[in-house]
């Protein structure tokens, strides 16, 4: 086991099942397959997975557009929850209930992950539901953790896992929140604390500026990229900050730097999966210190759309690709 001490292994058997990708393509290329056990390296913890969650990155990986980083498991899955069954880490013990940020491998029965990327299950959250937290919490904290009371946040894709978490985080920080989403999801997003905008029929620049007496958004959390770049600059307040975390609407667009200069605005673009381990460990530590208390006092809750058995990952991917969900789709054992 690569130097990792064995823990409680009741019911443990050699080999395991995972969702593999037969070839790049649609959801039908996902297969429930027997695969070798993970082989933890020094400093890693072996987790018996209770649940994982579907992220857009998993869909990109399935299509062949987002390969896992070197050394990561080949199976999709960027987060999970479960029970520690083997560890050499001084911070974790056999039997601990945890959730974890993963470079891959969450669509499986077991996964090995560096101990620095584990988090305890927050008080008041079930073991299964905790699988919906690591990726979104780390994404939100690392990108808009600087948000202050009284600022205005605009979230594109407000009904997504990241979007529903960002709305709650911003409200907990005392910010005003606007978000774009299809109209049938507006009632739920209002319950979370956002003012929703129908991106199909409304101009988010006009709506946010009218609603903020011309101020605009201090921070824009964007998943669309090129297609929204110009209008995101329009809606930004003076000294505003545009944060790009995905490019669902294209990668390339023309940027008028003079507009940034005039507004003294900034643009940042980040991904989470490809960061070095130390960087991700620092983010996880910040989440545990600054975000977990907000979950434990009820100011942020995981938003779960539905639970689907891991074997039926094909169905889960179809749901997420159709954007029929609000919050997270969980894959459960």
Summarize the structure in words.
The protein has two domains: 16-133 and 275-332, Medium-chain alcohol dehydrogenases, catalytic domain (Quinone Oxidoreductase, Chain A, domain 1, Alpha-Beta Complex); 137-269, Rossmann fold. Strands 3, 4, 5, 6, 7, 14 and 15 form a seven-stranded mixed β-sheet that branches. The chain contains nine helices and 15 strands. It starts with 15 loop residues before the first strand and ends with a strand. The protein has 333 residues and is of the alpha/beta class. It is 27% helix and 26% strand. Helix 2 (134-144) crosses helix 3 and helix 5 (204-211) runs parallel beside helix 6. Helix 7 links the parallel strand 12 (236-244) and strand 13. The model is unreliable at 1-12 (pLDDT under 50).
Entry summary:
This protein has helices at 56-63, 134-144, 161-172, 186-192, 204-211, 229-235, 257-263, 277-296, 313-321, and strands at 16-21, 30-35, 44-53, 79-87, 97-101, 110-114, 118-120, 152-155, 176-181, 195-198, 217-222, 236-244, 266-269, 304-309, 328-332. With 333 residues, the protein is of the alpha/beta class.
| Multimeric organization | single chain
Q: Superfamily at the CATH H level of the largest domain?
A: Medium-chain alcohol dehydrogenases, catalytic domain
Strand content: 25-35%
Instruction: Give me the strand/helix succession.
Output: EEEHEEEEHEHEHEHEHEHEHEHE
Low-confidence stretches: 1-12
- Rg over C-alpha atoms, rounded to the nearest angstrom: 20 Å
Helical residue percent?
25-40%
Gross CATH architecture of the largest domain: Alpha-Beta Complex
Biggest sheet layout: 7 strands, mixed
What coarse outline follows from CA principal-axis ratios? globular
